[in-house]
Amino acid sequence: MLSDEGHQVESVSNGEAAQVRLAEGGVELLLLDLMLPGISGFTVLRSLKNLPSPPRVVVVTGCTDYESFSQALHGGADAYLVKPCSLVVLADACHSVFEPQSSAAERRSERRQNMGGAVRVFDPEDGRPLALGTLMDLSPGGAQVQLQSPLEPRSRVRLAVEASTGLLLDREGRVAWRGLAPGGFAHGLGFVPS
Q1: Sign of the CA dihedral with 70 first, then 38, 81, and 96 last
Q2: Where are the alpha helices (DSSP H) in 61-147?
Q3: How far is 130 from 49, CA to CA, in rounded Å?
Q4: Beta-strand pair 56-61/166-181
Q5: Domain limits of the chain?
Q6: Tens of pLDDT along 40-91?
Q7: pLDDT tens figures, 118-141
Q8: Regarding the domain delimited by 108-191, which CATH topology (the fold level of the hierarchy) does it fall under?
């Protein structure tokens, strides 16, 4: 797909070969799986900090757990995609890592891409269901969700996100903000450190 768009594409079969090729330089974008033979993708990601001109990184992996997601983003990944994903989503992620970053105010007002996870929100004390909806955006510190019912700002909640491969995330948080959205209510949730 990237070759068809005119990009020069190379591939390697394991983590050691990736580190050798990256050390040679001239790589602008790295599509990285986390589960590689030999050296893991996490190790490859950490080694990028030692390069004079590290590439932008799009992680494309089967790892659906929140810890892998958080570790990859904290390790320097620019985007995190869960396999299988469509070529359109992959192409969008590859292009978006080179776009200028918008300010926090601009990011809050942007339309977010639906990440496809079903969301269930529970009361953290008694496990009572509070709302259903869709994951809109996810970061190590929180999530943006669209729910069918409104939640009170500053209230404590437990967020469960389900992907086609199973439970992606189960975290406690607080409602940071709430707004109207088509067909429901948009919410920003900040995660409570575990």
Answers
A1: positive
A2: 66-74, 87-96, 104-109
A3: 42
A4: unpaired
A5: 15-99, 108-191
A6: 999 999 999 999 999 999 888 888 777 888 788 888 888 888 887 778 778 8
A7: 889 999 999 999 999 888 877 777
A8: Thrombin, subunit H (2.40.10)
Superfamily of segment(s) 15-99: Response regulator (3.40.50.2300)
Residue bearing the bigger pLDDT, 5 or 57:
57
CA atoms within 13 A on the CB side of 49: 8
Percent share of the chain, pLDDT over 70: 87
In this structure, are residues 166 and 129 in contact, taking their beta carbons and an 8 Å threshold?
A: no
Distance (Å, rounded) from C-alpha 19 to C-alpha 98? 22
- Within 10 angstroms of residue 189's Cβ, the number of other Cβ atoms is 23
Is this structure's pTM higher than 0.85? Answer: no
Query: How far apart are the C-alpha atoms of 44 and 23, rounded to whole Å?
Result: 11
The separation between the first and the last C-alpha atoms of the chain, rounded to the nearest angstrom, is 40
The residue whose two tokens read 């659906």 is: 64
